[in-house]
Amino acid sequence: MLFPMLSIVVPTFNERNNIPILADKLKSILESHRCDYEIIFVDDNSPDHTWELAREMSLADEHIRIIRRVGRKGLSSAVIEGFLASKGDYLAVIDADLQHDPEQIPQMVNELDKGDCDLVIASRYIDNGSVGDWNKLRILISEIATSMSQLVMKYRSTDPMSGFFILKRDVIDRNIEKLSGKGFKILLDIMSVDDTLQIKEIPYTFSTRLHGESKLGNDVIVQYMEFLLERTFGKYVGIQYIKYMIVGSLGALLHFSLLSFFYKTLEHTYSKSLMAAILIAILFNYSFNNLWTFRSHRLKNLSLVTGYFKYNLLCVVGALANYSVSMYLLGYVDWVLASFIGAFVGANWNYLTNSIYTWKTKHE
Ligand code: GDD
Ligand code: MN
Looking at ligand 1, which residue's alpha carbon is closest to its atom 25? Predict the structure, then answer.
């Protein structure tokens, strides 16, 4: 009988010291288990030249392959590219730093072989599993992130953030166009687009990293939030629009807090306080839209300054629209509702015009 072929995708960024050790372990484990396999490193042009070492390894061993990506970055999208280039019937993902125990792969393959599931997750949160020696803060962040994931998928997986899992190729083939590829959470990405999966979980202990350091920084947390927003509201509106509205709401909140601080606490005149609150809130909105909402079209240097003038000019028109709509509606509805609708119309005007003229994003 022919055994299914296994492709193991290993995303790497600065993992030069880890990959030979991982490859050796995988090799000895899989070769003692009758497996036909390939190991695919997907490296985002690591400054430590992980890709170069992986290339040398691939020349010496036909089971090893390497995809070097230039100008693209991110764990999820790296794994997706690895999947697309793979040949196997079963596709596994494992970190390069030996925090996941490769000894568990044969057991995971076995579960798929049984035929009653199409995804096997190594979980830290079922009996006998563990996060190892994490500090309290990281445990808390992980728990919050895990419970938030319930927003976007129906499964009660104990560890949807796991970076160690194996699935049948068909799962990827039929869902590939729906995957977002954003951020770190490839498993959640897959589970949130397919609610027909049969899932099994096996326990594992997350060990300490062998060499190098973790890439899980604040930007990964922001990307995760964006991913959840996109999956929740993305069917209705674009992620950029959602971000703009979030920044706008935070700006409004800041405006009122500053106003009350200057006027009530510091006891400045109302007009001075209002002026200061408006100026700071506009600066806040402009900066955060530039840093976050329109990150991929971020303005720098001189265009940051000219952009600021454009932004103000367009927002003045938005304010006029806000004013006229609110005034008009005041005759029909209560003042709170009138002001909300006015602000909403103004904000939409601001979004539309600024995304076209200030940040020059394309609107298809
Ligand atoms: N190609 C590529 N591009 N690889 C990356 C990138 C990237 O931008 N960022 C990280 N990697 C690789 C790392 O080199 C490593 O092999 C693997 O992805 C995991 O990255 P780590 O930086 O070691 O992540 P971690 O140990 O903090 O997080 C792990 O545990 C999390 C659970 O809390 C990962 O398994 C996460 O997927 C998992 O969610
Ligand atoms: Mn790691």
Answer: 214
